[in-house]
């Protein structure tokens, strides 16, 4: 982190929004992308934070991404809908899809929205958080271009295909799980290349499928679970493909144009997302739900930990990082700082 430049949140947010607007995004799209990237940068998911701004600007200027999309919603039933993102920034589509799912769930208890003709949407936790802040148990997932080997495989097949789930907690920040079905996100490999850092064992492989810790040699990621238990991650990645790609009619992971390792920044990538909202009021009721989740979290956090370890619920680490960065500023790598002029 010594190479990083600390920037205060308001200045970083303003610079990110301005760069997207200058790059061709309309106000709604730029606002949504800034909101999602700032969420990631605040909680320490730097691989999906403001460092992606330059990439999105390149895609906007190349016409891969439509900077002023006309998103259309087609209601298919009382609790389901399809959102056509018109090749716009995925962040705007994902926030709109979650907003719609929450609105429908207030009437039907459970609601789902499939999103097609979209693009990279960054950290899925941003949208699960938005749903939780609406009082819903929420799920957001997305496919991405193939960069992860299958269990026992030696070529790219699935995307990192993240799954994010948020749940409201009375008087506290939401319970928030945001995980890739790969060992790590590929953006972390790119970040480590920039910083000259070494990868952990068992998270990436070279072009022949052999594990490597060198980010410059890494050609693909390994599925969650690594060499011995990667069938779990590969199976979960397939589940995300089922919901985000097959169910929405989007391009399959292994056929999607690569995000960065390509010269084609003109052709839209037709990524799919999926979001789900569940209203606790329609199940056990809000009062019982709140009592139960508080009891669960109190007992979880007071559970006996191994020596030198701390037991945490999903989201606890992220909210702690957010508080720290509010005090110290958000670390930005030098390349991104130059691009954003911060």
Describe this structure as you would to a colleague.
The chain is α+β, with helices and mostly antiparallel strands and 342 residues long. It has a single domain (5-284, 318-340), classed as Ribosomal Protein S8, Chain: A, domain 1 (2-Layer Sandwich), CATH 3.30.1370. Helix content is 40%, strand content 17%. It has helices at residues 9-23, 27-43, 53-62, 90-108, 125-133, 186-195, 226-246, 286-301, 316-328, 334-340; strands at residues 5-7, 72-77, 80-84, 110-118, 137-142, 148-149, 156-158, 163-167, 175-179, 204-205, 220-221, 271-278, 330-332. The chain has a seven-stranded mixed β-sheet with strand order 2-3-4-12-5-8-9, with helices on both faces. Helix 1 runs parallel beside helix 3 and helix 2 crosses helix 4 (90-108). The longest helix is centred in the last third of the chain and has 21 residues, at 226-246. The protein is globular and about 50 Å long. The mean pLDDT is 96.
Tell me roughly what share of residues is in helical segments.
40-55%
Query: What CATH architecture would you give?
Result: 2-Layer Sandwich
Which residues sit in consecutive blocks of at least 5 with pLDDT less than 50?
none
First and last CA, distance: 17 Å
Strand order across the largest sheet: 2-3-4-12-5-8-9
Biggest sheet character: 7 strands, mixed
Radius of gyration equals 20 Å
Output the structural class: alpha+beta
GO molecular function: oxidoreductase activity
InterPro entries: Mal/L-sulf/L-lact_DH-like_ah (IPR043144), Mal/L-sulf/L-lact_DH-like_NADP (IPR043143), Mal/L-sulfo/L-lacto_DH-like_sf (IPR036111), Malate/L-lactate_DH-like (IPR003767)
Keywords: Oxidoreductase
Protein name: Oxidoreductase
């Amino acid at each position: 982190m010594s190479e990083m430049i600390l920037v205060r949140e308001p200045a970083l947010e303003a610079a990110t929004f301005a760069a997207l607007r200058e790059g061709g995004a309309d106000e709604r799209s730029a606002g949504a992308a800034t909101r999602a990237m700032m969420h990631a940068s605040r909680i320490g998911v730097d691989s999906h934070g403001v460092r992606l701004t330059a990439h999105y600007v390149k895609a906007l200027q190349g016409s891969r991404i439509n900077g002023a999309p006309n998103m259309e919603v087609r209601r298919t039933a009382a609790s389901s809908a399809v959102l056509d993102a018109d090749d716009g920034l995925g962040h705007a589509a994902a926030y709109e899809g979650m907003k719609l799912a929450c609105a429908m769930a207030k009437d039907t208890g459970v609601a789902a929205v499939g999103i097609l003709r979209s693009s990279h949407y960054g950290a899925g936790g941003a949208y699960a958080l938005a749903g939780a802040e609406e009082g819903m148990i929420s799920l957001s997932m997305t496919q991405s271009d193939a960069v992860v080997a299958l269990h026992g495989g030696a070529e790219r097949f699935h995307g990192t295909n993240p799954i994010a789930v948020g749940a409201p907690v009375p008087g506290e920040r939401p319970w928030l799980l945001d995980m890739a079905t790969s060992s790590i996100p590929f953006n972390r490999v790119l970040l480590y290349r920039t910083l000259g850092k070494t990868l952990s064992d068992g998270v990436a492989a070279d072009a022949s499928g052999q594990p490597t810790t060198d980010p410059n040699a890494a050609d693909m990621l390994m599925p969650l679970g690594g060499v011995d238990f990667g069938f779990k991650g590969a199976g979960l990645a397939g589940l995300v493909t089922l919901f985000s790609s097959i169910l929405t009619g989007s391009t399959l992971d292994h056929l999607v144009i690569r995000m960065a390792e390509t010269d084609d920044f003109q052709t839209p990538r037709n990524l799919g997302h999926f979001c789900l909202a569940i209203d606790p009021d329609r199940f056990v009721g809000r009062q019982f739900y709140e009592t139960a989740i508080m009891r669960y979290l109190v007992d979880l956090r007071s559970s006996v930990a191994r020596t030198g370890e701390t037991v945490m619920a999903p989201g606890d680490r992220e909210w702690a990082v957010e508080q720290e960065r509010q005090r110290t500023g958000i670390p930005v790598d030098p390349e991104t700082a130059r691009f954003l002029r911060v």
